[in-house]
Description:
7-stranded mixed sheet; two-stranded antiparallel sheet; 18 helices
Amino acid sequence: MHIGSTVAAPRPVWPVRTLPHLADSPLNPLGCRRAYIQPLRTTATATATVTTSTETHLANLERLLQKQSPSPPLFAPNPGNDPDPPNSTSGGGGPLSALNLPFLFPSSRRQPEEMSPRSLTGLHRLLSDSPRPSPRGPIASRWRHYHGAADWAGLLDPLDENLRRELVRYGDLVQATYHAFHSRPDAPADAPRSVDLPDRSYRVTRSLFATASVELPRWLDRFVAPWMTQRSSWIGYVAVCDSDREIHRMGRRDIVISLRGTATCLEWFENIRAGLVPVDDGKDNDEKNDNSTSRLPHAPKVECGFWSLYKTAGDRLPSLSAAVVEEVRRLVNQYKGEELSITVTGHSLGAALAVLVADELSASIPDAPPIAVFSFGGPRVGNRAFADRVEGRGVKVLRIVNAHDVVTRVPLGVAPPEAAERHLGGNWWPAKVLEGMDGYTDVGSELRVDSRASPYLRPDADPACCHDLEAYLHLVDGFMGTNCPFRSNAKRSLARLLSQQGGNVKKLYMSKARELQVGQLDPSAAGGGGGAFSTVSGCLASPSS
């Protein structure tokens, strides 16, 4: 009986492929393996040669790696804390760390920690004070949409690029009010100011003044500058677009009312008068009767201090309310028959007054053009009835709010006495703070930005920085959408941000700015202790915080 045996097929031997430039390298394990597979070719002399070649190659590689000194941290947008420089001398990593695999395999190499020439050029451009705004596209066909006709639906998150440019442009018009006021703070109270508008397509037609109804003790005059205690102060202006090219781009002639924030002691005192007071209907009659809506339990009410600054007339000046209505009426009649819009913009106190202005204009001007408010860091203005009235009159309000700005969350509100007696028998204040009955409420739509999303600001930026107008414009210029990174191609200059908030800018960027020698470091320009750059000659840093 023949017993067969099954013989396994011989395993094919595939040729070993090696790269030509690594075939004979001592660091190539395949090359070393091939040397051991061919023992007939291996002699004592060849072994010694290979050993010597390996030692020489490793020594050369080590010297090459030692020449690469530790680099400074990567200068790139980082919403977190400043990156710590890597510790190149620390141990760990095991035997493979000696091979420096990222050096041998570029695909796994870490990002370079030196700024590239292109990044340095971009930083130098951002630190220069020469404005390089994004090019404005034509919005004539959709200007009502950008002016809030549909409450900015679909434009805020993600933020439409055309709307971003319009917001920054209006914010710069507010910034001009700060510069105009603080360039001559001791000017006569009733003297018009020369306003250097950043947008040359607009022309200032009238100066605006606000008058406080409170008075400070005379002894305070010894501790503050006289302009800090004067009752009437220059607070903004009315301007109109006169450029045919810009009118064609926007699709209408725009009338702008721009208002600054708090600057004087009396304005600060008015700010803290947080009680709610009834407001009139905004029409051209001051007659009050028993049927007046202001006497109703849920009548429109606003903050007492804001209303005082808006309605109080000075010794030789009309009230802010009367001046605005008179000038806007004149302009509407002058350009009757044209496509018009009214835009009211302001920051902080100016943002609150802007809502009052828009509400009155909507009721005081027959067939009023579309009215919109762009509010930067504004506090709450009135109760729910007032907010409903503003929105019911067709006024569109867009509030730009920094998530860490406490000003946008005040006042908390005060309940009316009748509600207090009805619910708590007179002990009503704590309950109002905790629960709220007829307190303050927000009006309009909201665009929420976050100062911690900026790669340049410290995550622990102080409240003054979170409320600063230039910081707001910086955040709007870099905002793309919720949970989106800061816009990498933002073009707004950082010079003013460094000048006004140097102590709140990350040290990494401050040191890089010093290396680039952009501007002259002025330690007194910022209160944060980090120093600031003085880059705008002839203008004081606007204390918009």
